[in-house]
Each structure stands twice: as C-alpha cells, then as structure tokens.
C-alpha cells in the first residue's frame, strides 16, 4: 500500500528564504517572495547526465499567492556559484498554509559541483481567486506501489458554484526528512468539465528519483467557466 497521506500538521519543516547579498539575486526578489518559505533543493543526477532539483515552496501568509518562481544555484565547495536556473512552481495558486512543488533542471552537472542553494525569486498576492479558480477537494481512494512506481487514485469534488475546467492534478512524494523524492502533474483532456457537486476520479503515477519515499501530498486545481444559476 502507498504510505499515508501527509497532513498539514506533519508537513516538512521549511527554511525561511534568506537574502542573497552578492550577485544581484536579492534585487530580483519581490516583496512577497521574501515571506515565502522554501525547502532545500534535493538534486538528483539523471541517466543522461542532467541534474534535476526538487523541493517545495510553502505559503505561511493568510492570503493566496501566485506567479511564484524558484531559483536554484549550484555551488562548489567554496560557495562559488557555478550555475543558476529559475522556474515557476507547479501550482497556479498557493493557498494560505499550503505548498507547491518545484522542479529546476540543469542540462549538465558543472565541474566542481558540491551542493545547491535554493531561493524564492518572485511571488504576487492573488486577487479574485474565486472568480478565476474552482473550489475543488481531492481525497485519495486507492494507492499502490509497483515496480518503483507509485499510483494514487483521487476522488475530486467540485464544491463551488461554478463549472470547473482545465483541471490539473499534482502529487508530490516525500521522504522522512521532508525532501521531495519525485512528483508528477497531469492534465485531463481539455473537454473534461466538472459541474458543481459533481465528482471525478483521477489517477496519477509518479516514479521517485530516489529511495525512501514515506508519504505523499496531492491537490487538484481547475479554472472557472460560467457561474451556475441557483
């Protein structure tokens, strides 16, 4: 069976985003980004020689945020930056006290690479969220682990008053230290709609980048179409 769903009370401890005083990174940060927390990047070398760095951004604020980007710097033993890449997190809106996974890919491992430093680059307060995004909940109904692949089926319920479209489901795998060992994001066919009160089953498969997965976190997002009359 799949490890139990991680709950907000046992989400991994995250490090507050520090200021970067050297290469202009601080100047690029938005004011909201300074208040977001980011888990240290867990970086894995792939079979083709690239390096993928995974982690999560947590929103400790009492307002939702969006347009969140994460940067990862690869450094040598002396702390000199060898490479720097940025990417958007894989969540349109990060609600209060929620998290979003990120993945930053480097095409190759630079010579002298000794570690990685991660920071939140940008983020904005999200406005009119209820007018743009559906109110969806997701509950796991089954889970299996076969041949190094985790598969979870989620029951997705539209609890809002608007039709949901452009659905996207995301599952993040975590080890006992709260590091991300893998994640996947799927988007059903564009023709899939979820009316108010309607439920839908979605299955997600994730191949972990490393051993030691003990828990997972999953969420589903959707955009709003027309408001349904009462």
* Shape field: globular
Name given to the CATH architecture of the largest domain: Sandwich
Structural domain count: 2
CATH superfamily of the largest domain: Immunoglobulins
- Which spans of ≥5 residues are poorly predicted at pLDDT below 50? 1-28
CATH topology descriptor of the largest domain = Immunoglobulin-like
Gyration radius (Cα, Å) is 18 Å
Name the beta content range: over 45%
Structure annotation, total helices? 2
Query: Based on helices, strands and strand pairing, what is the structural class?
Result: mainly beta
The count of β-strands is 15
Distance between the termini: 42 Å
CATH hierarchy, class of the largest domain:
Mainly Beta
Mean pLDDT: 85
Helicity range of the residues?
under 10%
Main sheet record: 5 strands, antiparallel
Element string (H = helix, E = strand): EHEEEEEEEEHEEEEEE
Describe this structure in words.
With 230 residues, the protein is mainly β. Helix content is 3%, strand content 53%. It has 2 domains: 8-125, Sandwich (Immunoglobulin-like), CATH 2.60.40; 129-227, Sandwich (Immunoglobulin-like), CATH 2.60.40.1620. The chain contains 2 helices and 15 strands. The strands form 4 sheets. Strands 1, 2, 3, 4 and 8 form a 5-stranded antiparallel sheet that branches. Strands 5, 6, 7 and 9 form a 4-stranded antiparallel sheet that branches. It has a 3-stranded antiparallel sheet with strand order 10-11-14, with no helix packed on it.
């Amino acid at each position: 069976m799949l490890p139990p769903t991680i709950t907000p009370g046992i989400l991994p401890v995250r490090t507050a985003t520090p200021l970067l005083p050297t290469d202009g990174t601080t100047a690029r940060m938005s004011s909201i980004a300074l208040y977001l927390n980011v888990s240290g990047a867990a970086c894995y070398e792939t079979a083709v020689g690239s390096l993928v760095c995974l982690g999560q951004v947590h929103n400790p604020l009492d307002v939702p945020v969006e347009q969140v980007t994460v940067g990862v710097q690869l450094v040598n033993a002396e702390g000199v930056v060898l490479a720097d890449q940025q990417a958007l997190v894989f969540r349109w809106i990060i609600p209060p006290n929620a998290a979003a996974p990120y993945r930053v890919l480097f095409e190759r491992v630079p010579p002298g690479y000794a570690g990685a430093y991660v920071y939140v680059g940008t983020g904005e307060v999200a406005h009119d969220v209820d007018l743009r995004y559906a109110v969806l909940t997701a509950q796991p109904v089954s889970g299996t682990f076969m041949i190094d692949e985790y598969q979870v089926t989620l029951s997705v319920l539209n609890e809002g008053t608007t039709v949901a479209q452009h659905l996207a489901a995301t599952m993040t795998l975590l080890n006992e230290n709260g590091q991300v060992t893998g994640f996947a994001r799927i988007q059903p066919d564009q023709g899939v709609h979820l009316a108010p009160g309607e439920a839908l089953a979605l299955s997600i498969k994730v191949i972990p980048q490393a051993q030691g997965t003990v828990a997972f976190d999953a969420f589903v997002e959707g955009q709003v179409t027309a408001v349904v009359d009462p």
